[in-house]
Every structure is written in structure tokens, then in C-alpha cells.
Amino acid sequence: MIVKIVGIFFVVVGTVISLAFWVPGLINRDHLRQIMGQRYPMIYFIYFTNGPLLLIIGAAILTFMR
Question: Max CA-CA distance within the chain?
């Protein structure tokens, strides 16, 4: 039961982060680029580890950990 709840949580959080990053206007990328400077590409790494990766892990948990 707890594993299923964790899987659902990961799927929901991963989806929300993915949508928030790619929907125009929710995250001001130009402002992020000004703040981060040369470290701006790190934003994509942080996005990937918190968005699609959580979605994939959550889906795998729900699929394989029945």
C-alpha cells in the first residue's frame, strides 16, 4: 500500500514539475538565465532529475511493484 502511494506521489510530482517547466509564462527562463549566468545549463539537469525522472520512477514503481 505504501509503495503504491509513493509511486502515485512520484508520478504526480513529476508531471507537475514537467508541466510547470514547459508551459510558457510559469517560469521566466530569461530571468533564470540572468541569475544563473554560466551555470544556466544546470537548470536542465535539475529539471530532468525532478521532472521526467520522478515520473519514470513512479510509473515503474506502479507497474513492477504490485
Answer: 46
pTM as predicted: 0.77
Q: CA end-to-end span of the chain, whole Å?
A: 9
What is the number of alpha carbons within 13 Å of residue 41 lying toward its C-beta?
1
Dig out the grid coordinates for 47 from the structure: 529539471
DSSP 23: S
Reported confidence tier of residue 46, pLDDT bands at 50, 70, 90: confident
User: In the structure grid, which three cell numbers stand for residue 9, read together?
Assistant: 506521489
| C-beta atoms surrounding 7 within 10 Å | 19
CA-nearest of 44, 59, 45, 65 to 9 is: 59
